[in-house]
Amino acid sequence: MSDLGANGETLEALLSEERRFPPPDDFAAEAVAQPGVYAAAAADPVAWWAEQARSLRWETPWETDLEWEPPFARWFVGGRLNASVNCVDRHVEAGLGARVAFHWVGEPEDDTRTITYAELHQMVCQAANALTELGVKTGDRVAIYVPMIPEAVVAMLACARLGAPHSVVFGGFSAEALAGRILDLGARTVITADGGFRRGAPSGLKVNVDQALEQCPEVQSVLVIRRTGQEVAWQEGRDLWWHELVDRQSPAHTPEAFDAEHPLYVMYTSGTTAKPKGILHTTGGYLTHVSVTHRLVFDVKPEEDVFWTAADIGWVTGHSYIVYGPLANGTTSVMYEGTPDAGGRDRWWRIVERYGVSILYTAPTTIRTLMKWGEELPASHDLSSLRVLGSVGEPINPEAWMWYRRNIGGNRCPIVDTWWQTETGGIMITPLPGVTTTKPGAAMAPFPGIGADVVDNHGVSVGNGQGGYLILTQPWPGMLRGIWGDPERYRETYWSRFPGRYFAGDGAKRDEDGDLWLLGRIDDVMNVSGHRISTTEVEHALVSHPGVVEAAVVGASDPTTGQAVVAFVTVRGEGPEGEAGRELVDDMRAHVASVIGPIAKPRQILLTPELPKTRSGKIMRRLLRDVAEHRELGDVTTLLDPTVVNMIDEKLRHAPQSEEEEP
Ligand code: WTA
């Protein structure tokens, strides 16, 4: 390990909190060109955000910057704009129609498309006309369940153009999960594809839609993109091919401007209860937040940069930093359909080389996977085009940070570790490249105009060198406006723990310099490969299996995926042994995949005659986590029967684990 550092430094030296990386001298960042950006924003955050909002195109200027009746915020009140015009039309009108919006790379080798802003404009107009023909009107919700293909972006922007809030459901969710979202939204239109590619093999999406719609009689139209060419079932009168309906539409469409607070989209995310929450984002504030963070956090220069967010469009990272942020800034992006190892474990580096990617944004779990594959792969490609590297989705461990810096960034690219959530809409805590002196593993400081603090149980700020709960202290433009259909739950979930302040659900630490380090979730939410999964939701799925009596789920730390789902299950009767036991466990894992999706499959399920409970009957998840992580067991004195947990511990040490790759 001693040769990890560029100058033969020891691992300890590299990882010490003393370790600092000042911005390179020759890094002329946009934020540097705005001296005093932090001070200006701190002096009057609302006015600073309003200044940023002026870089968008507004059809009607707003009257009031912010109306704040905690916890309900309205930004840029009275202003009117169209998100799709801001992302596409205005760039074409400014003479940038020939600029590439997306270098799209399909999973199969040599399956690529280049889409200019002019082409994107035409595609969005045609899709908006097609949706209008299907009867989609302002305010109607549209569910989108698609692979990572350009039509995914087109569908989102076409909805935005019509003021029809979209809800993109990640392709890794099951039919059951899709149905739940469609019903919660009351969507009557679904956009999907026949399927997508997953490590060379076509997987089905339309088939899941068909199954989901058995529970959703309100859905009137299903628009189907042909991606794989696989056979699909067809319901006449409901199902339509995208290429038949969209391609024959006029390439002209006159957009309408919508209120700044008009709903733009709903993105479902897991919370501490079994039912996912529909996080609502609106138009003007969200677009302001994602465009300015995209510009400053990644130092984007739209004339030169090639930006690549290696995430799925089905998550908020894809919404904010594949679609709305980059397009609002007129940036050229790479969009890649597949997994990092499709066509070889150097696939990413071939993409960086081929398109001259200058900014790469990805998740620590992927960085750790790339680490496992070895540094020879990136070393054998020319990555000199890279100049900024980003990380998102979970705490990045210092080793991964250092590996990323050295082997991908050539020791020259600033790394921005960006903390944010589906609920925050855009980046909240982050270094600024060219400005911030970074520390491996620290997200450092709130973005200009953002207020964050670390507090103790009573809501009192902790001092330097201490940890506590992360809270956000003032409204920000990209903040969620509510939970779809449930305003009370919005208040209760985020604003009641510390009244008037936003409770993020994350632990954080301030170091001796006052810089911020994120420590992960402190609630019942797991973070598996950067995906948020609720322990309660997985428990509910398990209990709906006919063989299961009771289930307790914990997130156990995992060297690659951050956390892994581990379940403890009691079954009817004695519970089968040996082969029969293994079959039952496989069946339970498949059951979870069918109720939620393959991403939620437990890595390990332990069948046990009993679960450790307190005298009042509460399952002691904390102890189960100790067991799952093979740690010394914590305090067992409140247990009804302390021997249960030792028995489980013993069993787990001898139980088989699933090594199956997650999707
Ligand atoms: C975690 C993804 C540490 C955190 C954009 C948060 C992070 C949850 C970081 C939100 C980071 C995200 N450092 N933890 N840089 N970024 N998280 O809603 O626990 O899918 O609450 O949004 O991911 O996940 P979500």
Structural write-up:
The chain is of the alpha/beta class and 663 residues long. The chain has two domains: 500 residues, ANL, N-terminal domain (Rossmann fold, 3-Layer(aba) Sandwich), CATH 3.40.50.12780; 125 residues, GMP Synthetase, Chain A, domain 3 (2-Layer Sandwich). A hairpin with a 7-residue loop joins strand 14 and strand 15. Helix 2 packs across helix 3 and helix 5 packs across helix 6. The longest helix has 18 residues. It is globular and about 75 Å long. The two termini are 31 Å apart. 5'-O-[(S)-ethoxy(hydroxy)phosphoryl]adenosine binds next to helix 11, strand 20, strand 24 and strand 25.
Short summary:
Helices cover 31% and strands 23% of the residues. α19 runs parallel beside α20. Residues 1-8 have low confidence and may be disordered.
